[in-house]
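INTERNAL AUDIT FORM
Audit reference: QA-55
Scope: verify that the stored structure record matches its stored sequence.
Auditor: D.O.
Record contents follow.
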Amino acid sequence: MKFNLIALAIPFFLLFIALEYLAARRKRLSHFHLQDTVANLSIGIAERLLDVYTTVLFYSLYDHLQKNYGLFHIRPSLLLWILLLLCTDGLWYWYHRLAHEINIFWAVHVVHHQSEDFNYTVSARITVFQAVVRTGFWAVLPLLGFPAPMIVSMLLIHGLYPFFIHTKLVGKLGILEYIFVTPSHHRVHHASNERYLDKNYGDMFIIWDKLFGTFQQEDGKEEIVYGLTKPLKSHSFLWQHFHFVIELFFAVRAQKSWWNKLKILVSRPAAIDPAMRDKAEAAFNIFSIDRPVGKPLNRYVKWQMCIVLGILFVFILLGRNIALTQQILVACIILITLVNCGAIMEQKTWIVYLEFSRLLLVLLGIGLCFPAGWLALLLIGIAYLIYYYLRDLQPQYLKLVYANPTAH
């Protein structure tokens, strides 16, 4: 049996998230809010899930570029590992900066900045779309001649560091502030305060920001407000991924000439009329949720997240031993659950259809794992009965799940 040890990153990160939560709670600091935490982890789970498939593609791309178009034939040595680290971080700086300055890149990066909390869970807000765009920048590395194994190893190391700078519990770090990106520097980057906007793009080294004029020191006198300058009105898993794409679509469509349409795509996010957010929200019926989320609802969401994290760990650890059909089923169940959790926190009535879809996939998975005729008939019968009585079951289900029966 083959094991993918990358799965061990999940309990590693969860341990530090738990430690940060306990430390904040001991100090009576409200650094964690359930809806933000669930939204953050949901996005991270989806990225880790899809990363199982995209990592192979990225590796193949690096390998193909280096072997066919690499300027040099680089062999690992201490000096070249250091050079690779600097090149990786420098390319990250320019990806990150352009992701804030160009709308088509901001569309994939905006997800990372939506949370109004700032803690270790925010580091999970990376989408597979962002990973694809970043890979386009890192494709420079194999063109320089760095081999794919070196690049992938460095990206794993480089990707670990930024997890620890997403926290409010660590103050300034003395002399390290002059060299490395610290939690203080990154708090500035995630701030929506006007003086802090579009600053501190570095991932590991702060030298790039100081070199290119985008550095801003944290001022302890001004309270930092996190999140977007115009906060979202939803914790929906899907809306957080695609809201800016929709806003950008409306903005492009509003332009009369093709030149202006193209100009919007490569302009800064500030060039988009704020009314486009309102237009997008109206088109997809997105609005603020003022209802309290009771303890039963909280527990239901928490249990779903715990189960999904456990499934994800096993899925990544043993994925190489699982048939493709079963992999697809598990992936679909996880993604439906993530959409479901976001919809539950907003007390949507249509979650019953997500629950039914998830149940169908589970029954299908059982049927595939235990291919017996009598069991297949039993599972089909169960699915049919639930479907037949779905409308009758819906009000009872919603009453059971929601403390407030006036969900929408």
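Auditor finding: record pair retrieved intact. The mean pLDDT is 89.
Action required: none
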